[in-house]
Amino acid sequence: MAWLGPAILFALGTVIELKVLASGLLGLVTLAPVGLGMHLVARRREKAIEEWVLDPERLQLLRVSSWRIVPVAPFEDLTGVALASEPTT
């Protein structure tokens, strides 16, 4: 069922594209990527890669994902419990 959301977005974009194309206002060039683009954005979010990296200059542990870099805490303040309890988004 994980494919249902992207499939709905893809279908919605395709319907919008066809309505605009039929009315002759904007044409295929403008809205052709709408459904496919929404589908690819949804797939990109599902595949976000996350890892932990130590910043040697600031002695800070960073959570790195494909979307952003988030400072978690100064390295001295981290313990195994603090690291394990940090929520991942």
List the uncertain runs: 25-35, 81-85
Radius of gyration: 21 Å
How does the helix and strand content classify structurally?
alpha+beta
Arrangement of strands in the largest sheet: 1-2-3
| Share of helix, binned | 40-55%
Q: H/E order of the elements?
A: HHHEEEH
Distance between the termini: 21 Å
Domain unit count: 2
What share of residues are in beta strands? 15-25%
Basic shape: elongated
Number of strands: 3
| Mean pLDDT across all amino acids | 54
Structure annotation, total helices? 4
User: How would a textbook summarize the main sheet?
Assistant: 3 strands, antiparallel
Précis, in short:
Helices cover 49% and strands 20% of the residues. It has 89 residues and is of the alpha+beta class.
What's the structural blueprint in terms of helices and strands?
Elements: H1 4-23, H2 28-31, H3 33-46, E1 50-55, E2 60-65, E3 69-74, H4 80-85
Antiparallel strand pairs: 1-2, 2-3
Helix pairs in contact: 1-3
Describe the structure.
By secondary structure, the chain is an alpha+beta fold. It folds into two domains: about 5-45, no CATH class; about 50-85. It is about 50% helix and about 20% strand. The chain contains four helices and three strands; from the N terminus they run αααβββα. It has helices at about 5-25, 30, 35-45, 80-85; strands spanning about 50-55, 60-65, 70-75. The chain has a three-stranded antiparallel sheet with strand order 1-2-3, with no helix packed on it. α1 (about 5-25) packs antiparallel against α3. The longest helix is centred in the N-terminal third of the chain and has 20 residues, at about 5-25. It is elongated. Residues about 25-35 and about 80-85 have low confidence and may be disordered.
